[in-house]
Fold these 3 entries.
Entry 1:
Amino acid sequence: MVVNVPKSPVAGAADAAIPKLGLGTWELRGQPCAEIVAQALRLGYTHIDTAQGYDNEEAVGEGLSASGVARDDVFVTTKVQPQLIGDGDLQRSLEASLQRLGVDRVDLLLLHWPNPSIPLADSVRALNQVKREGLARHIGLSNFPSAMLREAWRLTTEPLAAQQIEYHPYLDQTTMLAALRQHGMAIIAFCPIALGQVVSDPVIQAIAAAHGRSAAQVTLRWLTQQPDVIAIPRTSRAERLAENLDVFDFALSDGEMQRMSSLTRPRSRLIDHPEWVAAWD
C-alpha cells in the first residue's frame, strides 16, 4: 500500500528539480536494501541515491519495482565508479546500471570521484553524450574539488546540475559551497548527520529540545533549510525513515542556523580517498 504524504520540496538547479530529502543506500545490500527502498517510497520518499560502487543497484531496482510507486514519481541517482569514467567505459557502465536498476534512464548521473589517470575531458564528453541520448536526464559530479569543478564547467556543453559532497555541521565547506553556488548547482549532502555524531552533540541536542525534535531531524532541517541543499541520509531501520522525512513542518531561526553553522572543527572529514583527491578545499 502506498501511503499518501506530502512530497519533499525540491531544489532547482540547471534544468533539474531534485527532491530535497532522499534515501541514501550506501552499505545497504540484498533483500534488506530492496525492502528499505520499497518502504521509503511507500512512505513518501521521492528521491533514491545509489552508485555502481555500492554493489546494490539491482536491489534498489527491486525496491523500486516492489514499491508500487510510478517510475516518473521517483528521482533516481546513480554514480559511475572512478575506474569507469573514461569515454566509452562510462557509457557501457551506465547501460549496465540501467539494466540492474530496471529503468530506461536515471534522473541524475554523477562521476563518483575524479580519477587523475583519466582525462577529465574524456569523462565530461561521455557525460554529455549520455545526457543528449536521454539515458540520464541530468548530469553532475561528486567529490570534485573546486579547481576540478571549474575545469569540468569549462569542458562541458551540457549543464552540470549538482555535485554530491560530504556536508554536515562539523565540516567546513565554505569554499566548495561558494563555488557550487557560483555555477548555480544543487548541493547534495552525503553523511548529513556525520555518521551519527550529531546525536550526542549538546548544541544540537539543545536546539532539538526547543523544537521537540531529534538531533538528526534538526541537522537535516539545517541542511534542507538552505535553499540549494539536498540531504540523503542513509538508514537500514524502517522506523527511522519517517523521522528523517519529517523535517519540513518546522523551521530553525536565523540564530539556530548560525549556531549549527558554527560547529565546524578541524579534521572532521569522514570520507577520503587520497588516490582520487590529493587535496581538498
Entry 2:
Amino acid sequence: MKSLAILFAGQGAQSLGMGLSALTQTPQLESLFSNIQKQLDFDLKGMLSGQLPGLDQTRYTQPSLVATSILYYQQLQSLLPIKPSYFLGFSLGEYTALFASGHTDLATTLQLIQHRAKAMASSSEANPGMMAAILGLSFVTLQSICQVISREGHVVVIANINSPGQLVISGHALAVKEAMLEATKQGAKRTIALNVSGAFHSPLMQSASSAIASFCRTITFKPSHTPMIFNWTGKPLPTLKDLPIYLTNQVKASVQFEASIQYLTQQGINHFLEIGPGNVLTNLVKKINPDARVVSFNGVDDLQTIKEFMI
C-alpha cells in the first residue's frame, strides 16, 4: 500500500438519508450511533431521514455531517482497517479529522462542533453575507479584485482556495456581487452564488471565532496518533498548544485546500481516500494532482473499490 491520506467532507456535502445506510449495512454501529445521539441536542435520525426540517441550516448541518462522517469512517474501519499517514478535513470536515486523528474523543468532538455551528449561525444573523464560487480566474487576479472592492462595511475576501481555477469568495452581499461582476469582466468563466446561510471563512465570522476561542479554553486536546493537515495553513500543527488558535482562525480565514494537497504530495502521498457523503473532495484532488489515485467511501457498495485501491 502506498502512502495514504484520508479526507473528510465539508458543509455542502449533506443530503437526506446520509449515514443511515451504514446502520443497516453494519448493525454494530448502532451502539456508536446511540453514543453520538446522547451528545446532540436534536434528533439525529429524524434530521437525517427528513422527518425533521433543518438539515440545510448551519445549526444542524454541521453536527449532522460530522456524525455521518464518523459513522462512515468507523464502518470502513470495521470492514477494512486502514492506517493512513495523514488526515485532512475540508472546513467542517476538520472536526471529523480531529476525532479520527485522536486530538478529541467522541463527546468532545460533538460538543465542539455544536458550539461552532451555533456560533456561526449567530454570527451569520448578526452580520449577514453571502458566498460565491469563481471559476477560471487566477488567485492573484481575484485577490486584487477583492482588495480594490473592500472597505469598511463592504468586505469581500477569498474564502476557499479549492483547486486551480476554483476559488470561493465571501463577505457582505453587495461586495460579493460587485466582485462577481468584476471577475466576469476580467475573464472568469463562471460565477455562482452559493446556497449558504452566511459569509463563512471571512471577517464577518469574527464573533464566531471569538466564541470558538472561549470554548476551546475549556477543552484539553490530546496529542494525535496520526498527523493532521490544517485548513488555516495547509500544513501540520507545529505544537499541540497551537491547536486552539488554529481552530479559532479557521472559521474566519481562507480554507487552504489546494496548498494542503500540494503539501501532502510533497510528502510522498499519492493515494487519497475521501470519507463522507459525496465526492466533492475527490474531484478537487484530481484537479490539483492529476497523477494522484483518489477514491471515495460512502458505504459497503464502495468496499471492493477500496480493497483494489489499497493494493
Entry 3:
Amino acid sequence: MTTTEPYTLPDLPYSYDALDPWCPAETLKLHHGKHHAGYVKQANDAATQLSTLDPSDDAKLGALQSAFSFNLSGHLMHSLFWTSIRPESARPSADLNARIKADFGSFDRFSAMLTSACVKVQGSGWGAITIDPATGNLRVRSILNHNNGVVPSSHLVAVIDVWEHAYYLTHKNDRATWVGAAIDHLNWEAIEARCTEAKALVLAK
C-alpha cells in the first residue's frame, strides 16, 4: 500500500522577532514550533493509521477521521495565518479598497465586522475573510476551532488566529487588542492575490 506523503511544517515568512511587540518572539516560537508543529505531527499520525486501518473497524475509523480532519485543518489554517499577516502595518491597494467599500460600505465597517467576527468567537477559533462561492463577494465570518462554521466551497483569503495560545503570553485575556494589531498588520498583497484567484474560480463556474 502506498504511504501517505507527510505534511511538513512550513518556514515562517519572517523572523521570530519580526512581529514584536504585538506578537513577540517567545509567543511566535511556541505558536509555530509547538502548536503548529503539533498539528502537523498529529495529522501525519492519523493519516498513517488510516492508510492501514481495517475499514470494518467503524469505531476506530470515525475517531481517526475526526482526528485527521481536525489536525489537518489546524495545519492548513496556521499555514494561511502566517502569510495573512506581515511585520509592517499596511492598508489595501486602491483597487482592493474599492472592492471592500463595495461589499461592506467602507473600510472602517469591514474592519469593525472582522473585529467582531474574531472577538465574538465562543472559545477557540478564527476570524476569516472569505470569498462567497456563489457571488464572488468578500465576506467575514467566525470559525469555531479549525473547521466548524466553514461554508462549503467558500474561499479563505485570510485568517486571524484567536486561540489563546496566539496571544495570551502578551495580551492575557485582551483578545480585542491582539485582533486590532493583527488587522493593522494584514498582508494585503497576499490577500489581493488570493481574491483574484478565488474570483476567477467563481466566474469560471
